[in-house]
Amino acid sequence: MDFNVKKLASDAGVFFTRAVQFTEEKLGQAEKTELDPHLENLISRADCTKNWTEKILKQTEILLQPNPSARIEEFIYDKLDKKLPSRTTNAELLGQYMLDAAKEFGAETPYGSTLITVGEYQRRLGGAEREFLQTSAATFLSPLRNFLEGDWRTISKERRLLENRRLDLDICKARLKKAKQAEAKAALLSEEVDKAEHELRVAQTEFDRQAEVTRLLLEGIGSTHLNHLRCLQDFAEAQATYYAQCHHYMQDLQRELNRCANAVTAPHTSASVCPVPVPSAVLSGPTSSGAAAGSSSSSQTPVTLPVEQAQLPVTGARKARVLYDYDAHDTSELSLLADELITVYTVPGMDPDWLIGERGNEKGKVPVTYLELLS
Known about the structure:
The chain is an alpha+beta fold. Helix content is 66%, strand content 9%. β5 and β6 form a beta hairpin.
């Protein structure tokens, strides 16, 4: 117990001495040892990294989870090292409400069947969002938190220790200076000078050693930047995948809704599904008017396509690369495989969201959003 009291008193004395030295430095009444310029630059770079990492982490958390209460819940579970219960996304909840409403209104009614269609796609969107949130948390948020709660704490601890060593060094320098002044006035050798010089050498050694340790840790910030760069690329890739899935689902939903609308209005308007003969120019290229007039109905069976594909003239034929797989929903459309090249063109009066695609002898409508037009 006596040893602990003495140690406590000694620590209190050291703390008080450092506090006095620090205060005098701030008031300009004491000299301060300046750090090496390279070390100062490393410290500045580390502080910048820490500050921006905190801001990016906080804003990313807000982006992924706008609900403050949910973020607090996630924080508590993370600190308790417990698995967060699975949470239904807003899109999934909306989809479930639509499906439940469809049961009430009747799935056989136009409104009910449309609610089912939209509800199913909302659930798919919610599933894609859930996967995106999980991927982002694992590949981006966790590495940033690990840096702030692990590496940065170690760096901060060593920097505080370096500051204490610097204060001790400056205290020893001040003591030696006072001892030499007293020695000059007394005109004799003083043991205080020898003691002060010894303490200064010890303090200088400890300061240099701690400065080297701190420098090595701060230089590791470069590796931290490389790691965060990879995490940022993974986050951007997860975002791209998520938004591509959402775009794909919404395009499919729009086609489903368009078919539903056409089915409802089909008894009243038949022009959109009425087949018409396709001129020979569409099938085999231009021919002479005489040959066209002389051909008999018995020698050539007319091929029919929907009105959009039968319009002439063909304009803007060019190559296109397919971005995603696409399954044709009816005989007027052309199925696609990702990365294949096809020829596309449009005809007057055609829906701007669609083009006519050709692949060998196959031809049909293709959605523009699934294509990358090549020059």
